[in-house]
Structures are given as C-alpha cells and as structure tokens.
Amino acid sequence: xxxxxxxxxxxxxxxxxxxxxxxxxxxxxxxxxxxxxxxxxxxxxxxxxxxxxxxxxxxxxxxxxxxxxxxxxxxxxxxxxxxxxxxxxxxxxxxxxxxxxxxxxxxxxxxxxxxxxxxxxxxxxxxxxxxxxxxxxxxxxxxxxxxxxxxxxxxxxxxxxxxxxxxxxxxxxxxxxxxxxxxxxxxxxxxxxxxxxxxxxxxxxxxxxxxxxxxxxxxxxxxxxxxxxxxxxxxxxxxxxxxxxxxxxxxxxxxxxxxxxxxxxxxxxxxxxxxxxxxxxxxxxxxxxxxxxxxxxxxxxxxxxxxxxxxxxxxxxxxxxxxxxxxxxxxxxxxxxxxxxxxxxxxxxxxxxxxxxxxxxxxxxxxxxxxxxxxxxxxxxxxxxxxxxxxxxxxxxxxxxxxxxxx
Length: 407
What we know:
Layout: H1 12-15, E1 20-25, E2 31-36, H2 48-59, E3 67-72, H3 84-92, H4 107-115, H5 117-121, E4 123-129, H6 133-142, H7 148-151, E5 154-157, H8 176-190, H9 215-221, H10 229-241, H11 255-266, H12 280-291, H13 303-307, H14 317-326, H15 330-347, H16 350-353, H17 357-368, H18 381-393, H19 395-398
Helix pairs in contact: 10-12, 12-17, 17-18
C-alpha cells in the first residue's frame, strides 16, 4: 500500500490496492498513469463501479494536459474480471458511438477512455503490455469501428523491455507478478532471461551544461547569475509571445525537437525559438529543465511539509506556504520567485489562455517537488497541486518579505 495514502481518501477502498498509479513521465514529458490488472482483487472484494469512478477521478487531474497510459494486462482472470452484466450497465452510461467495443479486450480502462471524448482527446499514447492473442484478434475485428486517429495511439508491447524506448522505465512501479511473467515469457521464447540493461557511467557535465546539473553548478559557470540561462530565455520568450496562447503548458512537443534544443543549450549555443514556429517548445523546455534538476526546486527537505498543507485550516494555508518557502536555500528561493512571478502573470491572462492558477498547478506541481525515493504517488497530488496553486495565486503575499542579494 501507498504509505502516504490517508484512510480519509475519498476512494481509499480502491486506491489501497495500487491498481492505478502515477509513474513519472514519458520521453515527451507527459505524465504516465499505469493500470495493473494483477492488482485487482477477486470481483466479490472489489466494487467495479467504484473502480471506474476512481479511474475517472484520477484522469480528471490530467485530461486537460497530454498524458500517457501503460496498461499491464497480465493478471486479468475470470476471478477478478468485471461481469458482463456490470459492463453492459457501464456502457449504457457512455457515449453510444463507442459502446460497440469488445468488453473483454481492455477491461475497464478502455471502456472509459473510448467512451468519454474528454479523456480520449489528450491521451497521446496507450501501451498495452503483454497482450493476449484474444485481445489482438478482437481489436482487429472492431478496429474499423474505431477512429483511425485513436487507433494510432495504441501500441502493443510483448515484453517489458520494449517500454524503455518510450518512457522512463525506472520510474515505473511494475508489479512483481508482471516482472516474473515477463521473465517466463523470455525463457519460453528465447530460452533465457531478459538481458540486463547496462547503464553507462555518468559523464562529467560540460561547462555549459543546463540540464541535469544543480543550480549551484550553473551559477558557478555563468559568472554568478542566479537565474539559469535556459530559464531566463524560455520565460522571456513566453512572456513576449505566449501569454495569450490557449492551453499554454498543456501540450507536448516533438521528442526529437526537445532533445535537439536541449543539446544546443548544453553545448552553450544560442537557441532561436522563432525557428521552430511552435510556442509549446519553449514551454516544454522550461518544464523539462525543472524536472531534470538533480534536486527539486522546492528541495527534498520540504516534501513532507508540503504534503501536510491539506491538514492546515484554509485561512492559515497562505501563511504556512510562506513559512515553508522561507526555509528554502537562497538560490532556490530566487529561482522559485522568478518562476512564480511568471506563472502568476500567465494566470492573469487566463481569460485568453485558459490557464488559471489551478490549471498551472496541475502542470507544474510535480515538476517542483518529488520525494527523495520513488515517484510521487497519486495520494500526494492534491497537496502538491494545492501548494503550487497557492504560490501562484498569492505570489505577491508569499514572496514579499525576503530579498536575496544579487536577486
């Protein structure tokens, strides 16, 4: 069970099984949600209607942004599979245009993702791991009835190792049952265990490195400048050309383009975002920069205090945020203040860009803070996003009492 899961969670009875989990980011910076069938208890012990509601509750926190789903099919058996009667009832609640989908193929997840356009639109990739032949046959039968555009989002992966080229494999919390099943498949098909992926030793960073190095390193290499160049340039560009762009920070961008821009920055070369003709590229670069810091901008030390923000009375939360922020190292404080000033500015244009403080918090929360070990759990999302929203909404109040030399 998730140690951060509170018994007062509205879906504690479902969440405690770990069927649905948050699992870091894919290679495009999109949040990854996993669905593990092997963690579903026997049907008589699980309320499938509640499971469906919990899945919707989880997706509701991401559907406004691009996201990815990994579906671990292994472990779906007659013992824990929803009954046909229940599935028929669920389908009646959905858009009839999609109710012809095979109920047994992708179980509950596909039921909801195909049936609600708002969940389907920003789902950019669905990886089905260890699919059975029955799933593939049924999919081919019903494929003509599904939109071609959505069909292209589905990728079958026969082995866990195939996930590595699509997302950050080490961030996935893969059930041991699935790992053992994968090893058995390798033995049967290839007569041996899957190869051990060798991680090359880290290279010393370049003097011009911007991604994956500490704030202190960038300060030392940039003549004492507190705001990293990549951050200053992306924020400056977005201020001038992106404040009124609808859905700013919600969209992803080409993986290769992002890698190319990162490479330019790491080599100390200039980047002209006008050349790319895509306002979402500097937006993704800014998020990527924050996410690849060795230590989160809000620091590991603040993680537990931030998670407790929901237990603070509403009228005292801004004051508590201010107290937590005052504990940050000076450099982190200055960079955070610079970022929040910009995000506050973005939120002031929400009538045009549709990015309120709440929307921005959903995008940036997990890029500002994460635990020292493992990835942020679903139960930590609410306090992390709430804390970030308060920083953006009450920027002037929270950051008005501390000035750092050189700021």
